[in-house]
Amino acid sequence: GDARAQAEGLAAKAATRRWRDVPHGPDLAAILGTAPRYLTVGHSGLDARGIGAIAKLDQSRRGVFLHDTIPLDWPQTQNDGGEARFRKRLDWVARTATHVFAPLAPTADDIAGHLHTRGWQGTVTVAPPGVEVAAPIALPADVPTDKPYFVALGTIEPRKNHGFLLDLWDS
C-alpha cells in the first residue's frame, strides 16, 4: 500500500543522493584524471550530474549496461512516473554514452531501436551475465512436494507483478 510505496521512494532517493555531491568541471577532472572511464550497470547516474558530467571531460568513455526497455515497452507495469523517468535516462544515454551493453541479443535489439530513434549511432554490445548456471540439486526434505508450488526469483517490485502471481495462485 501507501507505506510500501513511501518506503520504496525513500530507498530510491537514498540510492541516488550520492550524486548530489558530485563535483563538476575542473574539480571532477582533477579527481578522475586524463581520459576517465565510466561504467554503470544500474539506472542511477544517468543524468546531468552523473554521465552528463563525465561526458564533459576530455577523452572520457562512458559505458552503460541496460537490462531491458520494459518501462517503455510495457508502461502499464510501471509505478507512477516510471516510464517518464526511464525515458529521461534513456535520453541521457543516447546523448552521452559511448558504449551500451545488454544481457541478450533480443534485448540489445530493443535497446538499439529505442536509442537510434533518439539519434544514437552506436552498436549495442551483448554482454551476458558472467555467471555459470549451477547444476540442479535435490529439493530440501522439508519442501512439500505433494502440493503444487511456484518459485519467483527477483526483487519484489510492482513492475514485476508478484502480487498478480499471488492473486492468481489464490484463485
Helices, by number, come to 7
Report the C-alpha radius of gyration, rounded: 20 Å
**Helix residue percentage:** 40-55%
Strands, count: 4
Mean of pLDDT: 85
Q: N- to C-terminal separation?
A: 21 Å
The major pleated sheet works out as: 4 strands, parallel
List the defining traits of the structure above:
40% helix, alpha/beta, 171 residues, 9% strand
Please provide a written account of the structure.
It is built from seven helices and four strands, in the order H-H-E-H-E-H-H-E-H-E-H. With about 170 residues, the chain is of the alpha/beta class. The chain has a four-stranded parallel β-sheet with strand order 1-2-3-4. Helix 6 links the parallel strand 3 and strand 4. The longest helix is centred in the N-terminal third of the chain and has 16 residues. The radius of gyration is 20 Å and the shape is globular. It starts with a helix and ends with a helix.
